[in-house]
Each structure stands twice: as structure tokens, then as C-alpha cells.
């Protein structure tokens, strides 16, 4: 069962100069319980796709084609059914509110429950994301934690409402390598335990290979390749993916001109479980 199903999906951003396409002709199915990595260099449209899945496109975005969410029993609500974490945990945490209260409030708003019960859940989640001394930590403010700890707290706040899907937009790219891998390991563990569908956005091939069941490669706003990670990484079917893997580089360090000779439309995309699969 697909949790998300996109057909001919596109997004353009409107500004004074007109409409600028950011995503075009995306056909993609995201199966329930899978960990999908959206991989691409800066500007390829990864965040736009992540925001579209979460129903969070900004006002100046115009979507076309179809984006269905057939795997949800009822129309999903952000926060309750779909959780989201961003690159900057500071953006999702309120600096003036104790972290335990923030997590408890997220649970209360999305799932109800009395304050005592949601506060206990908040502490359980702080413990689950390996924040030391959860009872004491719950009473602290975000600035009293490190960047990696803040991201763990943001993760707890996103997961406490038990969403079916978590969309993580470059959640580790502001962290040092050790914290990156620790958060990735934690995310993988929790997603596995809970059968969570994970959409993980990154430009880092090494991180992608550490978490992906499936990979969707975006290039200049088009999906150039999608499939099981083992297949995509061992036998890429699009010249862009092949060039990308040959560099073995973090995509942020790849000069966009390196791939200028590759036309994203020069290949029919194979989508697992989709029309082309
Ligand atoms: N709110 C916006 N208004 C106008 N244009 C936007 C907006 N957000 C993104 N864009 C443009 O859409 C294109 C895709 O951007 P997007 O952020 O989705 O790419 P990305 O792959 O996530 O890049 P990065 O890794 O740098 O965040 C870019 O050309 C970007 O400038």
C-alpha cells in the first residue's frame, strides 16, 4: 500500500518575474513502512517535494498533477499523522518553553490526554531519544542543549503523537559527523520499531546509503531515478546517478556544472510499484 502516490506532479514558485518550475512530472509511490531517501544536489527540488508531501508548500507555490495519500485512513493531519523535522531544530522548538512542555503539548494537541499523562509521555520520549536525565531535562529550555540534543528533542516532539510518516528534511546536515551518524542510527531504530514510513532528504550519498530502503534521485526538478537502494547504488540506470556515484562526493561539494551535459529528460524513469515499475 502506498502512503503517498504522485502522478505528473509539479510545483512552480511564483515571483514578480513569473512562474519558476521547481519540480516537474514527478511519478512516485512511497510504500508504507519503507525508508525513502530523496537524494539530490542543492536546488534539485528535494525540500519542495518534502514540503508538498507534508502539505506545507508556501503560498507562492503552485502545484499541478496529483499528489494522493491513499495509505491514510482519513485525510492526514500534519503533526498527528505526518511528523516533520527540519535541518534547524531551533526552527521547530520554542526558545521560551521548557522542552518537556513542548513535547507534552504536541501530544495533547494531536491526541488529547490529561497533562499528567502527556508529561509522562514527554519524559519517556526524551529517554527514548537518549537525552540524559529525562526528568530534569524536561524542565530545561532549548538553549541549554547542544545542537545534536536539540535535534533529538525535535525528533521526540515530532514522534510523540505517533504519526504514520516522518518527513526529515536534512535533519543532520547542521551537525558534526559523529552526531549525524548517532541521529541517523536512532532514527533508523525508531522507524524500524514503529513501522514508520520515513522520507529522508539529503545531499549526502553516504548518509543516504546508511538509511535508505529506497532512493529517489532528483536532478533539476525531475525525478531521474527511483528504486530499491541496493539496486540504485549498485546498478544505477540513469547517467546522472551513475555520475553521482562515481564522484563518491557529498553533493554539496559538487559543482553544478559538472553534470551540465546530462539532460534529466533523456531517460524514462522506473518507479517501484508505479505505472513504470
Ligand atoms: N519559497 C520559494 N520561493 C521561490 N522559489 C523557491 C522557494 N523555495 C525554493 N525555491 C526554488 O525552487 C528550487 C528548488 O528548491 P528546493 O529548496 O526545493 O531544492 P533543494 O534540493 O531542497 O535545495 P537545498 O538542498 O539547497 O535546500 C530552487 O530553484 C529554489 O530557489
Automatic annotation (TrEMBL):
It is found in: Cell inner membrane. It is a peripheral membrane protein. Pfam families: ABC_tran (PF00005). GO terms for molecular function: ATP binding. InterPro entries: AAA+_ATPase, ABC_Ni/Peptide_Import, ABC_transporter-like_ATP-bd, ABC_transporter-like_CS, P-loop_NTPase, Sigma_54_int_dom_ATP-bd_1. Gene3D superfamilies: P-loop containing nucleotide triphosphate hydrolases. Residues 6-245 form the ABC transporter domain. Keywords: ATP-binding, Cell inner membrane, Cell membrane, Membrane, Nucleotide-binding, Translocase, Transport. Signal peptide: none annotated. The keyword Transport applies. Belongs to the ABC transporter superfamily. This is ABC transporter ATP-binding protein. It comes from Labrys miyagiensis.
Amino acid at each position: 500500500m502506498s502512503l503517498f502516490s504522485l502522478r505528473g506532479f509539479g510545483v512552480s514558485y511564483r515571483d514578480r518575474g513569473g512562474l519558476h518550475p521547481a519540480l516537474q512530472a514527478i511519478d512516485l509511490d512511497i510504500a508504507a513502512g519503507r525508508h525513502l531517501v530523496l537524494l539530490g544536489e542543492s536546488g534539485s527540488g528535494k525540500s519542495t517535494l518534502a514540503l508538498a508531501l507534508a502539505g506545507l508548500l508556501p503560498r507562492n507555490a503552485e502545484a499541478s498533477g496529483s499528489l494522493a495519500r491513499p495509505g491514510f485512513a482519513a485525510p492526514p493531519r500534519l503533526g498527528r499523522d505526518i511528523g516533520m523535522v527540519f535541518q534547524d531544530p531551533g526552527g521547530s522548538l520554542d526558545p521560551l518553553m521548557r522542552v518537556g512542555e513542548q513535547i507534552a503539548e504536541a501530544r495533547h494537541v494531536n491526541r488529547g490526554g490529561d497533562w499528567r499523562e502527556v508529561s509522562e509521555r514527554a519524559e519517556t520520549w526524551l529517554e527514548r531519544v537518549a537525552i540524559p536525565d529525562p526528568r530534569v531535562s524536561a524542565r530545561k529550555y532549548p538553549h541549554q542543549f547542544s545542537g545534536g540534543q536539540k535535534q533529538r528533542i525535535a525528533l521526540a516532539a515530532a514522534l510523540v503523537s505517533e504519526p504514520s510518516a516522518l518527513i526529515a528534511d536534512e535533519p543532520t546536515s547542521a551537525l558534526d559527523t559523529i552526531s549525524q551518524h548517532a541521529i541517523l542510527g536512532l532514527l533508523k531504530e525508531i522507524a524500524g520499531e514503529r513501522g514508520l514510513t520515513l522520507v529522508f532528504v539529503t545531499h549526502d550519498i553516504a548518509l543516504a546509503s546508511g538509511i535508505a530502503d529506497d532512493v529517489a534521485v532528483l536532478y533539476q526538478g525531475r525525478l531521474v531515478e527511483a528504486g530499491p537502494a541496493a539496486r540504485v547504488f549498485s546498478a544505477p540506470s540513469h547517467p546522472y546517478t551513475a555520475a553521482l556515484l562515481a564522484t563518491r562526493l557529498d553533493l554539496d561539494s559538487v559543482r553544478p556544472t559538472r553534470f551540465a551535459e546530462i539532460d534529466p529528460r533523456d531517460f524514462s524513469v522506473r518507479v517501484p510499484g508505479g505505472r513504470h515499475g
